[in-house]
Amino acid sequence: MGTLKVRNAFLLLVLLLAVGAAAWSQALPSTAGKTLTGKRLVVAEAVRGHAAVLVASFSKDAGPGCDEWARTLRADPALAGVAVYQLAMLEQAPGFIRGTIENGMRKGLSAAQQDSYAVLTADEKLWRAFLDVGTEKEAYVTLLDASGKVRWHGHGAARDLEPLVRAALK
């Protein structure tokens, strides 16, 4: 009986690992959004063929963390040449205040930074699943290689996780 329990526990563990791996093998959503300069942007198309880092927020509380991540990543010489895209999910925000939210996001950003900042208003469930969102109060970061494969993902403060992103690039 003890051997059967061990075997069943092992099979359950293998199944759970397989389900977890399948969840993270999801394709990058092909949601069309717009940049803060008003251009259409499909992140899945924009990152195709080169390494990129996605920094996403799902609430106002996560915004400062995303900005910190973007500044840290863009300033790191080890990440030179890696595109950094910020994503703001505004599907839950009422349409009449989205413009005000976008105006607030533009402050302090250069035109180039605004062009790599995507505002998304659809497919929130797909993005939450892809980024493995647990809490809305943190920034979610995903490193993609040139083939679009997730090389690393995490959430939280840049000062805690940024060395892990650099290590994943090597």
Report on the architecture of this protein:
With 170 residues, this protein is an alpha/beta fold. Helices cover 45% and strands 21% of the residues. The longest helix has 23 residues.
Cα Rg: 18 Å
Main sheet: strands, sense, barrel? 7 strands, mixed
> How much helicity do the residues have?
40-55%
Question: What form results from the Cα inertia axes?
Answer: globular
Provide the spatial order of strands within the biggest beta sheet. Answer: 2-1-5-4-3-6-7
Mean of pLDDT: 84
Q: Which CATH top level class fits?
A: Alpha Beta
Low-confidence stretches: 3-25
Can you count the beta strands? 7
**Whole-number count of domains:** 1
Tell me the structural class. Answer: alpha/beta
**CATH fold name:** Glutaredoxin
